[in-house]
Design goal:
5-stranded mixed beta sheet, 6 helices, 14% strand, alpha+beta, two-stranded antiparallel sheet
Length: 207
């Protein structure tokens, strides 16, 4: 059965991010094979959906980007993610060292991660030539080089370069101005609410 993702997202109160930020580039990696699963997960989905408060914060980030670095824009790699996709992703990594990178969708009463509520976004920045800024690793890289807790050590040990270090610090800064914060192990993942109980303010995307 082909899921009408857009219809389900809209029914849950989410919005198409490009209706709020026309400049943003949407490159949904899970609608392609360019992801850690190596397969298409979102059949037919081309748009990024988020809760309105997340989209509004990203709108302000994009405006700030335009002020600081004319021609630069956000690129979204993943946004709202249904629980069915979360289960498929978790099943792939369960019992492996990679499990730490995928939220467990099977914890009763606290299923999934913030993506599964439309409360998180995976993104980076494109330069004026539409090329992604160097962040030290690709999106979906499972390893310490993608962690956000000690970039200085990664730089000093040669695990990321100077340009990647500077770009990460810039990304962190413009996102945190809008109270959007990265996960400890993924430089690309941002969310506003950080505590697990905050998820209960919204509806889980269980389809």
């Amino acid at each position: 059965m082909v899921i009408d993702y857009e219809g389900c997202f809209r029914q849950a109160g989410l919005i198409d991010v490009q209706t709020v930020i026309p400049e943003v580039v949407v490159d949904l990696k899970y609608a392609t094979t360019d992801n850690f699963m190596g397969k298409v997960l979102y059949l037919g989905l081309k748009k990024a959906y988020l809760l309105p408060h997340m989209a509004e914060r990203l709108k302000r980030v994009q405006a700030r980007l335009e002020d600081l670095k004319p021609g630069h824009k956000l690129v979204i790699y993943d946004a709202a993610r249904p629980l069915s996709i979360q289960r498929e992703m978790f099943d792939r990594v369960k019992g492996t060292p990679q499990e730490q990178y995928v939220a467990n969708p099977y914890i009763e009463g606290n299923e999934g991660g913030f993506h599964n509520y439309g409360m998180a976004v995976d993104l980076s920045i494109l330069d004026a030539d539409n090329k992604p800024l160097d962040m030290g690793t690709p999106f979906d890289f499972f390893g310490e080089e993608a962690h956000t807790t000690n970039d200085k050590l990664l730089l000093e040990s040669g695990r990321i370069g100077e340009m990647a270090y500077r770009n990460r610090q810039f990304l962190y800064a413009v996102m945190q101005e809008q109270e959007l914060y990265p996960l400890p192990n993924e430089w690309w993942h941002y969310q506003h609410f950080m505590e697990e109980p905050d998820k209960k303010k919204f509806k889980i995307l269980d389809f």
